[in-house]
Design the sequence.
């Protein structure tokens, strides 16, 4: 049996989860890895605050120096979250040769390559399984089980809050606002839900996952991002009628044109395994040349699931003190990231119920090489009224730029009252 | 860069797949692991046979000695399949200190603990990710990512052939025989389909997965096994009407009574993620105290998917020449394996359309503490005819032994013409 001293930076939800796992499952861990983990220091802002877990005397501290200067501590788990001061703490730990385990997607997405270089220089490691998709070990799978594959595509539902909201909208016919309120009441969404509903959280995770999958840096600023705040009940109902589920998908593909990476609301066919991922669950779908299709599904957040990934990383760090850097394989930007990908589109617009409207609109699509697959026109008047009617299109695959140009043209057709939404469709 | 010499035993479907991956994805592997794999010997029965892949001069051999006596070969991948002579070859390689990588579920399920001991004695390893669920790295996930969890349940669709057959029966309303024939025509099923349709293949895999998950030996002979040959179109149609999919499930649970492990046709609720696993795909659903629910989905067989798992194991063997034995954590039978589990049941019987039939049958259930949840009686006559009608029950959870006793009693009710089937129901 080996005893390993570790320290925690922060003791919020995930830190508490990791601590509980270390206490409750110590024997299971000892049997599988021969290691007894010993949490010797936990850095918090206020050591006198009342907590749900009572730590042994002397473990809580509000002085970072108690950790950084303690040479018996080999591994530090960071639970502070956000870019700063977390990044600075991580940096200082690595400079002291302490391996850092973190769930901090923002720091890893923005500074991961720099911090990995630092870790290697100081003979330690930077592990972050918990940063993406919580309990689901998708990072270790890409790095250590799919390493003989050329991965061509990753498509994931990697934000639990938005998936919960979209599930409620679809299954209980709620508006976005009502579903968001429910998610907030349950603690799934923050009081300020921007990071989730506007897709930033998914963006950071996609940057990490796609960089690992394609072994090249996919920077945060290279990823297209669009949130779910504009999705309406109507869109979700049309999706159902047409055989799709609406999800906030994070998609990265490697094609001959380079890499494309994007986070946006997406129509996913009902029979696709991702379509049935409900509530706050996450899933990642991967295509590789040898494996074909593969999917991993589980809890993407929460104290115990994310804590499980943290403890697993800590155990790997114990066994491999000089490294185990996940980002080792990533080259900085060697492949072009493109912003002109091809997808199919669902478009809903409101038009005057008049002759020749469809003719004018379809002309705009045709001029920009957008070919139509499905048209749903639900007429209600006599075709000569002043009423407006909804008009729905699903296109074949078209270039993003062409579609944007087509929509600009369509907005100028005078019988088009509104282009209500344009949602990308994945197969 | 490190060059590693390896040898193959056998060069069938999976061996060819692994060889293709090593040739085609050599650069990807080099970037991720810094290793160049070099297949120096391939043992075959007939070196003159025409093959789809042309190997370099001198690689093919029909002499096992060329491999076992070549000290430059550190790793041997076994693709022969079946218990013998594969087990003997593996044994000899381990005795020579060569790490063995294999897809052989039968050898691992039956002799895994013994061979692991042998590997440890000789300072080498025994890796078998490819033995269960093909490309899906479920073994490595259990061993290296969920090691901080107490796993309470594994439920998997781990045989692609039977899943293909059941999918065709459900979606195209085929009989078992027709669907099996289609599977054989497509090469999904062997000319002798016994190992698949009678559940032996799933049994070996479940023995391996549950032993790893529960860190205790779950022997082949401890697992209950029932195949899919008696499943009829009618059962599948009733399942659909009642909101279930019929799957050949491999289930292992750890309860206070010990471990239960079983492979049998199973009603799975439509909303369960396993219900939507179609065609020849496999999936494994895991419950752990920290992770909650997790599922892994992918190709369970085939040259390239299984080859991918083999090559991944080879790379791990290169990095950890003295071990990496998956079965290290398994104790021989330290926990009791029970044969009296609790499940709900779907029961279809054919009865005379007469008064008091339901009364008599429900009395049998009651006497053995089986409580009914759903009863579907589709009457067609006047309740006094000589016609028979189908009678369907879904029970609440009941003990296996009680249910068997109840069914014996019911078989003695003279208005019961036939008990057509009894299928377990999982939540």
Sequence:
């Amino acid at each position: 049996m080996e005893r390993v001293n570790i320290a925690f930076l922060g003791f919020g939800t995930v830190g508490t989860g990791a601590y509980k796992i270390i206490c409750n499952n110590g024997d299971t861990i000892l049997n599988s890895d021969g290691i007894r983990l010993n949490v010797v220091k936990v850095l918090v802002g206020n050591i006198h605050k009342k907590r749900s877990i009572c730590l042994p005397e002397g473990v809580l501290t509000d002085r970072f120096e108690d950790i950084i200067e303690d040479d018996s501590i080999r591994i530090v788990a960071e639970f502070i979250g956000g870019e700063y001061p977390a990044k600075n703490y991580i940096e200082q730990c690595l400079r002291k040769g302490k391996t850092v385990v973190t769930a901090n997607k923002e720091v890893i997405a923005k500074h991961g390559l720099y911090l990995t270089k630092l870790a290697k220089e100081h003979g330690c490691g930077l592990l972050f399984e918990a940063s993406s998709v919580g309990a689901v070990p998708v990072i270790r799978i890409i790095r250590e089980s799919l390493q003989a594959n050329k991965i061509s595509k990753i498509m994931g539902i990697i934000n639990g809050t938005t998936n919960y909201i979209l599930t409620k909208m679809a299954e209980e016919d709620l508006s976005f606002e009502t579903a968001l309120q429910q998610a907030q009441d349950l603690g799934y969404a923050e009081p300020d839900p921007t990071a989730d509903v506007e897709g930033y959280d998914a963006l950071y995770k996609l940057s990490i996952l796609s960089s690992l999958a394609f072994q090249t840096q996919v920077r945060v600023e290279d990823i297209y991002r669009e949130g779910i705040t504009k999705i309406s009940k109507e869109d979700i109902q049309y999706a159902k009628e047409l055989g799709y589920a609406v999800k906030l998908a994070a998609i990265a593909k490697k094609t001959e044109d380079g890499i494309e990476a994007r986070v946006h609301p997406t129509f996913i066919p009902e029979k696709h395994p991702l379509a049935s991922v409900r509530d706050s669950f996450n899933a990642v779908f991967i295509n590789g040349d040898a494996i074909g299709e593969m999917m991993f599904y589980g809890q993407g957040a929460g104290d115990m699931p994310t804590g499980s990934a943290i403890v697993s990383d800590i155990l790997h760090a114990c066994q491999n003190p000089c490294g185990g850097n996940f980002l080792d394989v990533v080259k900085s930007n060697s492949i072009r990231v493109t912003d002109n990908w091809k997808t199919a589109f669902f478009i809903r617009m409101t038009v005057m119920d008049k002759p020749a409207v469809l003719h004018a609109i379809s002309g705009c699509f045709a001029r920009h090489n957008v070919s139509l697959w499905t048209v749903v026109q639900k007429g209600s008047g006599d075709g000569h009224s002043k009423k407006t009617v909804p008009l729905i299109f699903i296109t074949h695959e078209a270039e993003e730029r062409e579609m944007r140009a087509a929509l600009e043209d369509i907005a100028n057709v005078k019988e088009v009252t509104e282009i209500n939404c344009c949602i990308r469709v994945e197969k």
Q: What stands out?
A: Chain B touches chain A through 54 residues (CB under 8 Å). Chain B has three domains: 2-137+305-329, 150-299, 342-425. The CA atoms of residues 210 and 252 of chain B lie 6 Å apart. Residues 150-299 of chain B form a domain with the Dihydrodipicolinate Reductase; domain 2 fold (CATH 3.30.360.10).
